[in-house]
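Onboarding guide, step 5: your first structure request.
Type a short instruction followed by the sequence, for example:

Predict the 3D structure of this protein.
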Amino acid sequence: MTNRLIIELTVNGRHHELIVDPRRTLVDALRHDLALTGTHVGCEHGVCGACTVLVDGKPARSCLMFAVQAEGKQIRTVESLAEDGQLSDLQQAFSEHHGLQCGFCTPGFLMLAEGYLAEHPDPSREEVREMVSSNYCRCTGYHTIIDSISACAARRCGTQPGPTDVDSEPSDRSANS
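The system replies with structure tokens like these:
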């Protein structure tokens, strides 16, 4: 028999009081107790990144965190990105640059990128590539995800990316011609 606990969570700026089992994961509390189903459950081992949320502004795997550990912290889920039914600039960039396929991994990538861009507003394409390597996508080759994040960063910084910066990967074709 487990003792259930009353916890208080702040998720997407809203205060919630929940009664949870001490071993309930944050992803389960978000999805099942708060009906915030944008955060997906993938591997449940912290490997895939589908469950990525922001905890005090930093990307975190919500499948590896107990809900009780989130008490007193600011949690943001993918539902926090859009405002008044309008896509955020990052979501819009994913749409414009085809940064999603089936969409299962997309919320995790969005939250990973949102946290990363808050700390690194003008990353190089290689830095974006390194950052996204921590999450799995089984449908794309990551190029369009990198394109999307790079385009969003460029817009936020007020620079317009050129075709070689965002639209295509560097190629070795000229060396082999």
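Each response can be followed by summary notes, for example: The two ends are 70 Å apart (CA to CA).
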